[in-house]
Amino acid sequence: MGRGERDTVARGALLHESAQAAIGDHGRAVEAVRAALKPLHDAVVQRELDAIPVARLQDVTEGRLRLGSVEKSGLRTVGSVLDAGPYRLRQVPGVGQRTADQMLAAARRLSEAAYETVAVRIEVDRPDPDTTALVVALHVLVEAGPDARRAVDRAAELSERLGPLLAAARPAAGRFGLLLAGPEKKARTLTAVTGIRSLVDEVERTGQRELISQASVDLLRGPSSDIAAWVDFEVRSAEYYSLLAEISGRQPDAAAAEGFLPDEVAERVRAQPLDDRYRRVSLRGYQAFGARFALAQRRVLLGDEMGLGKTVQAIAVLAHLAAEGQSHFMIVCPASVLVNWTREIEARSALRVMVLHGPDRHDAFADWKGRGGVGVTTFEALRGLPAPGAGEVGLLVVDEAHSVKNPKAKRSQAVALWAERCERTLLMTGTPMENRVAEFRHLVRMLDEGIANSLGDGDALAGSVAFRRSVAPIYLRRNQEDVLTELPSLQQTDEWEEPSASDEDAYRAAVLAGNFMAMRRAAYMRPEKSAKLERIREIVREAAENGQKTVVFSQFKDVLRVVEEALGAGDGTPLFGPLTGSVPPTRRQQVVDDFAAVPGPAVLLAQIQAAGVGLNLQAASVVVICEPQIKPTMEHQAVARAHRMGQVRPVRVHRLLATGGVDERLVRMLAAKTRLFDAYARRSAMAESTPDAVDVSDTELARRIVEEEQARLARTDEELTAPTRSAPGQAAGVADG
Fold first, then answer.
1. Measuring CA to CA, which of 145, 179, 312, 594 is 20 to 30 A from 552?
2. Which residues pair with residue 605 across a beta bridge?
3. Taking Cα atoms as reference points, which of 79, 57, 60 lies closest to residue 68?
4. Is the pLDDT of residue 255 over 90?
């Protein structure tokens, strides 16, 4: 006894020192971010205060202040009042000590509110020195990654346990300490030495010592240059903003981040642990809550708005369940996002992933069944795979779950069978309420028969608040505006174009034929004089001059071909696509990657059904929608492919509309559909008395518009030919003129 104890204490002291170093290195990296953030945050607060009119002080003081003379003196904003201070305020006629004190107190209250609420947005196109310092400071933590964070957390735990043990084992550190110690002290010392030995052996056996040492190395390694940090920010901006929100403490409103769930559900979710050992990505607060919701409630529908990272939340759930010992998982998704799912799982987790699609899918399925992992398949392929036995699959994930809202469809029946056999099911969609509450009810039925049966007409009549409360145990939705304060601005413009005579002629022919789809694309059928096509050229040209990338969406392949021919004869801006449903999923992803990789301007042509789902188009900052869509959620999905978490530039959306015809009628009729979705699928205190009162089916909508347009043109013909009547062809010619 002696040397062995001294060696154990020495090993423990070295481990403690290493843990303390990692904690210190992480703390300094965090403080560097806070120091870089402060001047930027102060500047944003000052701009906010300089924009608040001094009259707002009346609101804070319940109208007790008289501010006319203050405004006349040149102090027109809350910021100018704070800058003036008490002495300058007392020089204003009619302002005494008491009034000045009240004004400053009210101004400080607004200032404190601004400090709590404003967020710093990193402007990638204006990299000034202060912003660059923040990006560089954040880069250290982002580059170190989740492994460093886990290592620092483990280091803190070890430090807390080792500190008291080392203090108690101090007599064993010297040659004569134990010899001079009394029996009780000696026993305590030897117990502490045993504890140190056990702890150090465990750390060395599991490789945690190396992880802690590597964390220090990673936290001390800065970027090779400022430019390298900015490039990394553009690629991984979501991770930068996630860290920034965590360090600054300016998280989104808690109720919004938790989807405004009832307290009893939210409390249960908060108490759910989340194991991250197989996950390679940090989660934002609302994302961690979403993963916990899926784990705590077991069978759920995650209805987050597009761009909030539902895929990452699903991966977090998979990683947690894998850490608990689950071995088999299944993901069902559209073919267009099959590649994206496999990439995301490989990049963001340590889980094994297998594609169960294509001619070899049955062999792949047998391999997955034998070895486990995450199987990724399509709705169509799932129909040919045998349903699992009870308890065989740890989690079924269904992406773009609105695709299985029709209970009569075979794909819906296949998914429902799998959901019935799986104890845990996660349905994901940003658009669960495209048309009717009844369709949303079918998705709920896959998860909880009781809740689905309870969603009768009475809930719809009671309004959206009652509806949301009814589905709270299985439904979670958050909106971008509530949880992503750093998103660049989204500017959506309805661009009304006056049809040319040629456009009118093509439109009239489509109406007389009663062809609704031809009416919708008539504006492009005579491209030499197309008003919409000319506007697309202008938008693309302007975007190219500003170095921006553009995505052009249309429902129709022939419209995309016309746009392709028109832009192909333009200024040489690289042109990609068109992406249509006939392009294989792997090729589709490659086209998007090539589009994103081009330095400077480029144009991607895409069928809105094919590229509006699953693909990430955040390289684009200009979006053109060639015609209004029958389903408003189709446009929303398409826009969200560009304006999503990770976007670093403002996004401009141009929706091209022709006056006087089908576009006008569609916009007016579909406004009601959008209100229905907002009331029932988003958070809202207002709802229509019943969804059927504002909804029409797509077929009924098309029939109604055709009939109304035929009647309108007939009336126009009569008005133009009265009092003498001319032949139908002559009337059309007059109208076109």
1. 312
2. 552
3. 57
4. no
- pLDDT recorded at residue 456: 65
Tens of pLDDT along 529-583? Answer: 999 998 898 888 888 877 889 999 999 999 999 999 999 866 688 999 898 888 8
Q: Is 74 left (phi over 0), alpha (psi -120 to 50) or beta?
A: left
CA distance 666 to 660: 11
Q: Which SS3 state, helix, strand or coil, does residue 469 take?
A: helix
CA dihedral 150, 152, 158, 163 (to 10 degrees): -160
Which structure tokens are listed for 138? 């954040």
For the domain made up of 254-482, the CATH class stated in words is: alpha beta
**293-318 as b/e: b if 16+ CB within 10 A:** bbbbbbbbbbbbbbbbbbbbbbbbbb
State pLDDT tens for residues 102-123.
888 888 888 888 887 788 888 8
* Dihedral Cα 609, 614, 615, 617, nearest 10 deg: 90
User: CA-CA distance, 181 to 168, in Å (whole number)?
Assistant: 12
From CA 490, how far away is CA 264, in angstroms rounded? 35
Tell me what the mean pLDDT of segment 17-34 comes to.
Answer: 94
Which of 12, 379, 362 is closest to 169 using CA atoms? 12
Stretch 66-78: mean pLDDT, rounded? 82
Half-sphere exposure of 109 (CA within 13 A, CB side): 11
Q: Please, which pLDDT band fits residue 181 given cuts at 50, 70 and 90?
A: low
| CATH of 490-660 given 3.40.140.10, 3.90.1570.10, 3.40.50.300, 3.20.10.10 | 3.40.50.300
Tell me: cis bond preceding 578? Omega within 30 of 0 counts: yes
One of 3.40.50.1980, 1.10.150.20, 1.20.1250.20, 3.40.630.30 is the CATH number of 42-117, namely: 1.10.150.20
* Phi, psi angle pair for 221, to nearest 5°: -95, 115
> Tokens in use for 600?
């400077």
The residue assigned the tokens 């139908």 is: 728
**What average pLDDT does the structure give for the chain?**
83
Distances, alpha carbon 343 to alpha carbons 66, 316, 329, in Å: 62, 15, 16
Query: What is the SS3 assignment for 571?
Result: coil
